[in-house]
Amino acid sequence: MSSENILLANVLYAPIVSEKSANAADQSNQFVFKVKKTATKLQIKKSVELMFGVKVESVRVLNVKGKIKRFGRSIGKRSDWKKAYVKLQSGHSIELATA
Length: 99
Description:
- This protein is of the alpha+beta class.
- The protein has helices spanning about 5-10, 20-30, 40-50, and strands at about 10-15, 30-35, 55-65, 70, 75, 80-90.
- The chain has one domain (about 5-90): Alpha-Beta Plaits, CATH 3.30.70.
- About 30% of the residues lie in helices and about 35% in strands.
- It comes from Methylomonas paludis.
């Protein structure tokens, strides 16, 4: 494995499985992933194509702000993170249950 492939393998953390992401997958062939905060759209596209062997049509990213939470007496903050909506070309699909 080349060093570029190793870097691309570390871009994706996990798929996000929720009711909203399941609807996006069924209706518009989009899949949602939690990704590295410093990842670019091109890195995310190459990473998904490498990991799952599919062709990516487009990538949309958004930064999710961490919530302010109380931990006993003190107030803390959860970490910010990045989410990516990956739209696949027609004819391609990812089976997250088997991946």
